[in-house]
Amino acid sequence: MTKDVSSIPAEAARRFDVPVEDDVTIAAYELKDCPSDAPVLLWGHANGFSAGSYLPFLQLLSKRFHVFAYDVRGQGASTTPPEPFTETVAFDRFAHDMERVANTVQATASGRPLYFAGHSFSAATMYYLGGGFGFAPWRAVTTFDATLRPSDHQDVLDAHYAKRPSMAVGARRRRQYFESPEAYLDAMSRPRAFGFFAREMLAAHCQATLRPRRDGTDGWELSCPPEIEAGTYDAVGRTTAPYDSLPNFPVPAHLVGADPAAPGGTWIGQLHEAFADKLPNARYTKMTGCGHLMPFQEPEACAEIVLAMLD
User: Fold this and answer.
1) CB burial class (10 A; 0-12, 13-18, 19+) of residue 215?
2) Deepest of 26, 54, 212, 298, by most Cβ within 10 A of its Cβ?
3) Is residue 263 included in any domain, yes or no?
4) Does a structural domain hold residue 124?
5) What is the pLDDT of residues 235-264, one digit of tens each?
6) Total domain count, the chain
C-alpha cells in the first residue's frame, strides 16, 4: 500500500478535484484505459467506502464505459466538512456535490451520453438530485440497494431496528486506527467483517480506505472517520425527502435490491420493489443470495447489470 491518499491509485485513474460548498474539496477520478468514444458513466459509492473500494468492479465497467467516480465529502480523499455535521453532512449537500461533479464530468464528455450507477446512499442522493432538485442529466440509471428512508412502511423499519442498533451506533464504535495495512486487511478479512467479499474487491477496499495517521503518530487510520460515517447514517435516517421525491424522477431507472433473506439483507431490500413502484419509469431486480454489499460479493454479475444499460 502506498501513502498516496487518493482512493484510486494514479496508475489506474487520473484524479481531479472539485470545489463544493463549505470549503470542501471532492476528489474525483477518471479511469484510464477506457474506450475514448464510449458513453460516460458516473459511479457513486456507499457510506464508509470510497471510489477506490470498487476499483476492480469499475474496471469491468470501463470495457464499455468511460468511467468516472468520486469520493463523497469527508470520505476517501475528499476533505472533511466543518461542524455542525447535522448541516454539512446532509442530503442537500450530498446532492449539490454530485451536481458539481456531474457538471465537471459532462464538460469533458464532448456530447456523449451520460449514465449513472451507484450504491447505497449515493444512489439515494442521485434520486433526490433528480426528483427533488430537477437535475438528472442521465440517459438511464442503475442503482444497488439505494438507502431511501420511507415516509411510510414504518412497520418494516420498526421490526428491523427492534432486533439491532442503528448503523450510526456501530459506526461510532468502529476501530479507527491500525498499526499497518496488513493488520487492517486481516481485520477486514474476518467473517463478521468483510470476509465474504470477492478477494480482489476486499484488497481494493482495504487499499482505498486507509491512510497514514494525521496526528503525527506512527500507524494508519480510516480515511472515513467514524464521526463522518455515523453522521452520514444519521443523514439517511433524518429525512424522507429523497424517497418522497421519487415520483418526480424523470429518467429510466433500474433498481437492484438485496435479498432480504440473505446475510446482510435489511429493510432496504424488503422495500426495494415498493421504491421502484413510486418511480414513473423503473424496474426492479432482486439480487438473490446477496445482501446490501452485493457489488463486493458478485462484482461480475453487478457489472453485467450496469452494462445492460447500453443494450
Assistant:
1) exposed
2) 54
3) yes
4) yes
5) 999 999 999 999 999 999 999 999 999 988
6) 1
